[in-house]
Each structure stands twice: as C-alpha cells, then as structure tokens.
User: What shape does this take?
Amino acid sequence: MYVEHPFPAVYDEYSEILILGSFPSVKSRENSFFYGHSQNRFWKVIAAIFGDNVPKTILDKRNLLLKNHIALWDVIKSCEIKGSYDNSITHVTPNDLSPILNKTQIHKIIVNGKIAEKYYKKYIEPQIHRIAIYLPSTSSANASWNLERLVSVWWNFIKT
Assistant: This one.
C-alpha cells in the first residue's frame, strides 16, 4: 500500500540533535504521532535518558523532546509498505531535511534502527553530506536489546 507521511516533524530553533526513524507504523499513523505503538520503547528510552516520566500525550511527548533540544522526524516521506513492516518498504521518496537543518542548531543526527540507516545512507547522506550515528532500534521487534541496554547505548550518544 502506498502511504504518505501523515504528520510533521518536531523541532524548534533550539534543536541540537535530530533523531530519524524510518517511517511511522500503522499505530503511529492512526495516532498521528511518532512511536505510537505501546510496545515501542522509544519514549521510555528518551524519558530515562533525561530522568523524566514516560510521556503519555502527544503534547507531553513534544515537550519532552523540545525541552531537551531534540528534533524528531523520519527518513521517508512516502513509500509502499505492508502494515508496519519496515522490511517491506519499497518505492521510497525521502524527506527533505533542509527545513530542519536550516532553522535549527543540529550538530548530531541519529538514525533509529537499520532501516532508517539504510535509507538515510542511500537518499539523504549524499544530499546533505552529514553522517548519521546508527543506534539500535527501539522497536519491540529488536528483542535482542532489552530496555536497560538500549538506554545505556542511546545515553552515550545523546548525552555526549
């Protein structure tokens, strides 16, 4: 099924770190916000890194990101995808990162998982000439990484 990204990036002029996922899951598309599936550990990881409560509402999630100078977006603007299966993604149109990069203080780009890394390297890196740091996916499908291990690795790259 061909799908367009249904909601905007989160950032403001104070954003310093850009975290990029691949493309929103079905649940995220239904909820109109990033990492909307309850089993995805993204919000738990970010909250733990900053010593905050796990946000519940979209407003709380946006506030957690912005108060910690984090921008959040996805590599893919549109694609064909079966359900939420990143491995089924084809016919990719990448997002244009220039609006974010031109209006922020981004000094670090992080990709959340192998699929985000794959499409970042294929479509975006050649355009903007900035290397992204790969971090293990926060998806529950990445079962070999428990929450504690994810927090530890993500903390090292976000806080340094």
User: Anything to note?
Assistant: The chain has a mean pLDDT of 96. The two ends are 40 Å apart (CA to CA). The chain has six helices and seven strands. The CA atoms of residues 16 and 29 lie 26 Å apart.
